[in-house]
C-alpha cells in the first residue's frame, strides 16, 4: 500500500529537452531559408508579377490611361486587321516551326550517331545558338536581299537559273521610232517593210551603253555593205549610236558597232520559217529561202530583263523566310536534347529488333520514335512556348513595307504600344492574350517535368 502511494506521488517525467530545441532549430532554418529566398522573390515580384498585374489592369483603360473602357480593348483586338494578321502568323509559327524543328532534330540526332566526327558535327550545328537574335536577324536580312550582288541566296538562285536559261545581253535595247521597226505586244520588234531573197536588212537599235557591249563586238560598217546572194537574205543588227557625237540616225557609220549574239527570225505569213544569231559584227544570213517576201523579227527574248531571283522578303514569302532563319538557330538545340534522350534508350531492345530481322527504318519508326515520345513532347512544347514570344527576328528581318504582313503577336504588341500606335491599353490587352496562350503550354511542361521526377 505504501509502495503504491509512493509510486503514485512520484513527479511526472519532464519533456525531453531535445524536442523544444529541435522545433527552434527548424524554425530558425525556415527563417534563414526565407531570407535567402527573399531577394529572388522580390525580383520575381518586381520583374514578373507586378508587370503582369499592371498589364492586366492597364488593358481595361484607353490609350491615355485615364478612362476606364472595360473590355473594349479586347474587342478591338479582333476587329483590327493587323491584329488578326498577327494571330494568323502566330498560328503559322506555332504549327510549322516546332514541328519542323522537332523533326529535323530527331533525324539529325539519329544520323549523327553514324557519323565518325559526331562531336564536331554537333558543335557545328549548335553554334548558331551562341549568336544573338539581333545578329542572326542582320545576317539573314543580308542573305535574303533581293539584289543578287548582295543577297547570297539570290546570287545562288540566279546562277542556277542562268545555267539552264541564257540571260539577255541587251535588256535596255530599243528601236528608234523612225527606224522602220515596229514593237509588238510581246516586246519583239518586226520590220515594217518586207525583204526578199537577195536583199538586206539594216536593223539599228539604241539604248545600249558602249561600255555594256560584249568584248567581241566589231564594227558593223563592213557587214552593212555586204551584198546577199540570190537565195539568201542578209543584214546587220547594230548600235545606232556614235560615241562622242556625230553620225546619222538610220545609217551605219564607221565607228558604230554590231550587236553580236542577237537572235533574228525570218517570218512569213505570221510564221517563223528560219532563225539565226548575229555574228561579232552584228551580221546575219538566211540561206535556202523560197521566193517571196519575209519580215525580219527580233524576238522579245533579246530584250528580256535579267532574272533577279526570288523576292524572299516580299509579302508572300516573308514569314516562311523568317521561319527559315529561326530553324537555323534552333535546330542544334533540338538535336542535342533529342540526342541526349536517344543515348538513354535501351540498346538491347534495338539489338533484339535487328536480330529479329527488322531494318533500320522499322527500328526507327516502331522502337526509336515511341521510346523517344516523352523527350519529343518536351522539345515540341518548349519550342511552342518559344515561338509564341518570337520578336527579334520578325522585327529585324522584315522590311518596313512588309512589316504588317510578317507581324506576330509580340511585334504587334510592341508596334501598338511603342512603335507609333501609342496605345498602351490595346498593347496591354495583346500582352494578356499572349500570356493566356503561353500559360497552358507552360503548365503542361511543368506537370510533365514533375511526373518525370517521380
TrEMBL record:
Q: Which residues cross the membrane?
A: 31-53, 91-111, 123-144, 325-346, 367-385, 425-446
The membrane topology noted for this protein in its Swiss-Prot or TrEMBL record is:
Multi-pass membrane protein
Asked if the Swiss-Prot or TrEMBL record annotates the protein with the keyword Ribonucleoprotein, the reply is no
Which locations, inside or outside the cell, does it occupy? Answer: Cell membrane; Secreted
Q: Which UniProt keywords apply?
A: Cell membrane, Membrane, Secreted, Signal, Transmembrane, Transmembrane helix, Transport
Q: Where is this region: Disordered?
A: 1-22
Q: Which named protein is this?
A: Alpha-glucoside transport system permease protein
* Biological source species: Streptomyces griseoloalbus
